[in-house]
Design a protein that fits this description.
Strand order of the largest sheet: 1-2-3
Strand content: under 5%
Number of helices: 22
Order of helices and strands: HHHHHHHHHHHHHHHHHHHHHHEEE
Length: 424
């Protein structure tokens, strides 16, 4: 009898032991949180300064659509407060209406890219463009007013409006060039380009960077036409052009600031542990943000040929598949992966950024060629001898010269059918 009972007692003891282990693991999972990784606070908070609203251009940007007669900077503060608080934002942001942009995107596409839309029947005529400029004059005036503000941090509204205004400004500059008002056109471009560069170099989320990236692309689209209309700009404003024709490297987009801003969206939540449910472990989540940021920044500094494979490795490590974190804290692992999953746009966004960087390098080379008065016969040799930072970022080879078309250009490996070029 006792011999037959021994396996039963053994099984019972084993079962109890497993239950104790399971209960201990559940208690550990539910009650234990990590210490913050060394370096977390320095990375996210060391250089964070309070920016007064009246010196923050992002506040003004969010307030651009305030009704005529209203204080648009004060409206921007209302918008900023609404975004910091839960609930229906629209009722608090636009209780008395808003100032809308007048015009359709298709009316301005032909002004931004005349070659691509040369025969577009929707293209705004000179007279229609003049009307659009007049009807949007309050929005444009407000936008130019915020150019003077020294800081740019945290805009959550009016991204599409920013893009529409930049389309309109590009169209206005092209109209100035058509009418021979080169100095006026250059001044408008100078002020807007300077503002956009400052904004894109500030801390901002991927969404904010994408909106600013499009706006910066619109602004840069008119740089070559300016130089073609007035070659003297390359000599009279040489230093200024070299300052404005940026970014020449990924650092101009402030990738560290992107990582900070992506976390700061959630800091009001994870920075207040008392308000969280028992199973939410803020330090565990904060550490995963920090480790993702660290690995992303390391990958982003790699040569372009390795960049996308490294980003895929990063994605698999932090967002996909098995990870020991599932044993330590399964609920928070699933939670933080769902949050970080929003950053899978990084790979495609980085490709778009490198395309923009390469185009800006072409523009810089265009200015240098004009300034030095280099004849066509010597352009190829000039490109071969140009400094490394002005090479094609996709191949690390010099930019190329097509003497028949009189363009300097670069290819993207695997997509040679779509060369990117600048006319001399």
């Amino acid at each position: 009898m006792s011999l037959r009972a021994s396996p039963a007692r053994w099984a019972k003891r084993l079962g109890l032991s497993l239950l104790v282990l399971l209960a201990s693991w559940i208690a550990f999972v539910c009650l234990h949180d990590e210490a913050l990784d060394p370096g977390f606070n320095d990375f996210y908070f060391k250089n964070q300064n309070h920016i007064p609203d009246d010196q923050n251009a992002a506040i003004g940007l969010m307030g651009l659509s305030a009704p005529i007669g209203a204080d648009f900077m004060e409206h921007g503060r209302v918008v900023a407060r609404a975004w910091r608080e839960p609930g229906d934002k629209s009722k608090r942001i636009d209780p008395v209406g808003k100032l809308e942009f007048v015009g359709r995107p298709e009316e301005l596409k032909c002004w931004v890219d005349p070659q691509a839309y040369a025969n577009d029947s929707n293209c705004a005529s000179d007279a229609r463009l003049t009307t659009l400029l007049r009807e949007n004059s309050t929005l444009v005036a407000r936008y130019r007013q915020i150019h003077q503000l020294p800081y740019f941090y945290g805009f959550h509204q009016n991204g599409q409006l920013l893009i529409e205004l930049n389309r309109l400004i590009v169209a206005d500059i092209r109209l100035n060039l058509r009418e021979g008002r080169v100095n006026e056109a250059y001044k408008k471009w100078n002020n807007n380009q300077r503002f956009l560069l400052r904004a894109i170099g500030a801390d901002g989320t991927w969404v904010e960077k994408a909106i600013l990236h499009v706006s910066l692309g619109l602004s840069l689209s008119v740089a070559a036409p300016l130089l073609q209309a007035a070659p003297k700009l390359a000599t009279e404003h040489y230093e200024g052009l070299l300052e404005l024709l940026n970014p020449l490297a990924l650092s101009g987009y402030n990738p560290e600031g992107i990582m900070r801003a992506e976390y700061m969206l959630y800091d009001p939540l994870f920075g207040s542990p008392a308000s969280l449910k028992l199973w939410v472990h803020p330090n565990f989540i904060r550490n995963r943000f920090y480790r993702f940021a660290h690995d992303f920044l390391r990958a982003s500094r790699r040569p372009h040929s390795d960049l996308y494979s490294d980003i895929e490795i990063l994605r698999r490590k932090h967002l996909l598949g098995w990870n020991p974190d599932y044993l330590q804290d399964p609920l928070n692992t699933v939670f933080v992966r769902s949050i970080l999953g929003g950053q899978v746009v990084a790979g495609e966004m980085l490709k778009a950024i490198h395309l923009r960087i390469a185009y800006v390098r072409l523009l810089v080379l265009r200015v240098k060629i004009a300034k030095a008065g280099i004849p066509d016969a010597k352009v190829e040799a000039f490109l071969q001898s140009a400094e490394t930072r002005l090479r094609n970022p996709f191949t690390n080879e010099p930019m190329r010269w097509n003497s028949n078309k009189r363009v300097i250009y670069f290819d993207v490996p695997g997509n040679e059918r779509e060369p990117h070029e600048v006319q001399l």
